[in-house]
Design brief:
Low-confidence stretches: none
Number of strands: 4
Strand order of the largest sheet: 2-3-1-4
Helix content: 25-40%
Number of domains: 1
Strand content: 35-45%
Length: 72
């Protein structure tokens, strides 16, 4: 298992958490997604996967949910 934490900007509520979780969870190999919501700041999104997930795939999923990947 691989665990990687990404910072995501723009999340403010539980709906934001649900949207990002849904999009990232749909990626192949993702086992779980945990989010530490920090409204008004970068939220930590921890992805546990069976294999390393390409950062560009995470970025695309976060963008699809309507948010911005701040860093990896």
């Amino acid at each position: 298992m691989t665990s990687t934490t990404y910072l995501v900007d723009g999340m403010t509520c539980s709906h934001c958490v649900a949207s990002v979780t849904e999009e990232v969870s749909a990626l192949a190999g993702v086992e779980s997604v945990a989010i530490d919501l920090k409204a008004g700041a970068s939220s930590a999104v921890t992805v546990v996967s069976s294999q390393p997930i390409d950062t560009d795939a995470i970025r695309a999923a976060v963008t699809e949910a309507g948010y911005t990947l701040a860093s990896a």
